[in-house]
Structure formats: C-alpha cells, structure tokens
Amino acid sequence: MKSWYLTSGADATSLDLRDVPVPEPKAGELIARVRAAGLNRGEFIAGHGVSGSGSKAAGIEAAGEVVKVGEGAAGSNAAFKPGDRVMGRSSGAFSEFAVFRVSDAMRVPAKLSWEEAAGAGIAYLTAYDMLWPGGELKAGEWLLVTGASAGVGVASTQLGKLIGAKVIGTSGSAEKLQKLAALGLDLGLQNRNGGFAKAVMEATGGKGVNVVVNNVGGSVFAECIRVMAYKGRLATVGYVDGVVNAELDILALHARRLRLYGVSNKMRSAAEFAEVVRGFERDVLPALASGHLRPVIDRVFPFAELPQAKAYMESNAHLGKIIIRT
Questions:
Q1: Is the same domain home to 148 and 213?
Q2: Can you tell me the distance from the alpha carbon of 51 to that of 44, in angstroms, rounded to the nearest whole number?
Q3: 225 and 98 in one domain?
Q4: For residue 282, what are the contacts with CB-CB under 8 A and spacing of at least 6?
Q5: What is the pLDDT of residue 75?
Q6: Which domain does 115 fall in, by range?
Q7: pLDDT at residue 51 above 60?
Q8: Collapsing DSSP states into helix, strand and coil, what is residue 296?
Q9: Degrees (nearest 5) of the Cα angle 10, 15, 19?
C-alpha cells in the first residue's frame, strides 16, 4: 500500500511516500480502508512530542471502512465488523489502510461525509477533554479561546457554544473572526500575541472568564492568568508561538483559587484515552449525528498532495480542519 512517512529533524519535518505492506491488526485493533484523514499541527512541529525523532508512518486521525478486526476486537463492546464506517484516532492515517485501537474508534454518524468524519477526531476530542472533564464548563459561563481560528480553537468555540457558554476568541485575522462569529463566537478580538486583557475584562463586567483555552503558548500565559475569574480554570494545549516558559502570578493563583492544567495525549494510557472517547460519544456525538454540530473543514487535498497540505497548514491561512482525501 501507499503510505506517507514523516521524518523529524532538528528544525523541520519532511514527508516521503513509500510502498509498505498492509498492516495486520493485533489483539484489540482493527484495520480500516482510509477514505479521509485530518492534519494536526502538533504532528508536524519539529521536536514536538507527537512527531518525536526519526521516521514514522504519518497521520493520527482518519475515517474509513473496517476491513479486518484483530483477536478480541470482534467480541468487544464496540463489536466492529468489516464494512462498518469508523472515525477517530488512528496510526498511519496518511496511508491507504490505517490501524485503529478498537477503544479509540467511533462509528461515523450517517449525516457526516468522510471529510467531516476525518475532521471530527483529534481536535474535537481535545476540545472535549478541556471543556468537559478538564474545565467543567457550564452554561452561562465565560470561555476565552486564544488562537481561536486553529483546529482546536474552532472546535473549542463550537463545543463551548454547544454547552451554552459565552465565548470570546482571539485571532490575528479579522476575516477569520468574522467567520467564527457565524459559528456563534460572542466576541472576537484581533490580537495575535496578547493585548486582549482590557477588552475581556470589560466584556465580563470586570469578573473575568471562567475557563481559558490557551492555544498560543507562553507569550499569552501571564495575560490569560490576569483575565481569569475566581475559581477560573486554564487549559494549556498548544505553543505555536514557540514560547514554553512563562511568568506565573502565584498571588493570583492563590487568592483566586485558580486551576491550571495541561492537555496532551503523549503520556496518556490507552485506558485514559478510551475514557475520553466514551465521554465524547455520550456528550458530543449525538450533536454530530443530528447535524446540530458540524466539523469545520477549510480545505480538502488529494492524497498525493499531502506535502502541499502541510505547507498550507504552516502558512496559517486556514480556519478549521485541513483534510486529505484518499
């Protein structure tokens, strides 16, 4: 089969297309014929925990049709069988066939296209992890999303509105903020690397926001702390600014009883990730199945143009998910 491999060097990542054997499922796994796969920025950042070092089969989320199930998979609670439509986290997603752990695979709702199903995986699961079990966001609370036009940022905006929160988003692009307003964004602030505190405090009547999703990184961390309400929660999920060290106001942390947490799947066990998937199926999948929630797809590239899709993602021109169609 054809499979894209990612090589991570000291300063950059590169892709090459290889001919490799079709994988065989191990116990608790299934193999799916990939119909579409989603790009995720973290995988392509040199030295990032997702990409690691050396070469590996690229792609971490896909949607496709089951062709074979491994020992123990057919008898699991999921009971997947050949022909079933599945989506979610996978290994070697930018290939003709990809490997799914059965515990990570979700059934594709009938209303979703292959492209939408491929885009409903990692970004939306990450946003779910931050806003439900992580942030315990409630209807009527304020949510701030920095870098709201990225894949996780768009997903966080949509899921925040699904919960019933009031959502503030930051982006360096006025055009992208206008598009986010159509998704329900209550307040868009054109700020790329900070400078949003005054407007956020004014919007919240001086109380601050209840939950912050920091997609940007260390350059806005201190400002995120400044705009948090009493018992506020701050999720750090990305550092596209490359800044991994930041000032921490311990007095604010103490006096306002703030909660800070990181969101990453790097060290998470299979059982822990499976728990998030089951929660997502319970709390979010019904909205996808009904059509109330639709993944935002920016652009679809053919399988052979994965390097061009990577370059497009790195240009920061997109809003939402970039998809590869096989």
A1: yes
A2: 6
A3: no
A4: none
A5: 46
A6: 2-120+267-325
A7: no
A8: coil
A9: 135
Total number of domains in the chain: 2
Q: Are residues 137 and 177 in the same domain?
A: yes
Q: Note the pLDDT of residue 8.
A: 85
Regarding whether 60 and 46 lie in a shared domain, the answer is: yes
Domain boundary among 233, 262, 291: 262
- List pLDDT tens digits, range 255-301: 999 999 999 888 899 999 999 999 999 999 999 999 999 999 999 99
Residue 197 to residue 184: CA distance in whole angstroms = 21
Tokens matching residue 279: 């929660």
Higher pLDDT, 54 or 20: 20
Specify the DSSP element, H or E, that contains 178. helix 174-181
- Shared domain for 113 and 164, answered yes or no, is no
Q: What are 208-263's pLDDT values in tens digits?
A: 999 999 999 999 999 999 999 999 999 999 888 889 999 999 999 999 999 999 99
Q: Structure pTM?
A: 0.93
φ, ψ dihedrals at 137, nearest 5°: -65, 140
Q: How far is CA 311 from the centre of its chain?
A: 19
Any idea what the CATH number is for the domain that residue 99 is in? Answer: 3.90.180.10
CA neighbor of 47 nearest in space, from 5, 8, 14, 6: 8
Sequence letter at residue 83: G
Q: Out of 262, 277, 298, pick the residue that ends a domain.
A: 262
112 and 16 in a common domain = yes
Report in angstroms the alpha-carbon separations of 33 from 36, 89, 96: 9, 14, 6
Claim to verify: residue 36 and residue 99 sit in the same structural domain: yes
- Label residue 164 exposed, middle or buried (CB < 10 Å: 0-12, 13-18, 19+): exposed
Helices (H) and strands (E) in the chain, counts: 11, 16
Contact 136, 43 (CB under 8 A): no
What is the token pair recorded at 325?
């169609």
How high does pLDDT run on average in the chain?
94
Q: Are residues 273 and 248 in the same domain?
A: no
Residue ranges in 16-163 assigned as alpha helix (H): 41-44, 114-119, 122-129, 151-163
Q: What is the mean pLDDT of residues 302-322?
A: 96
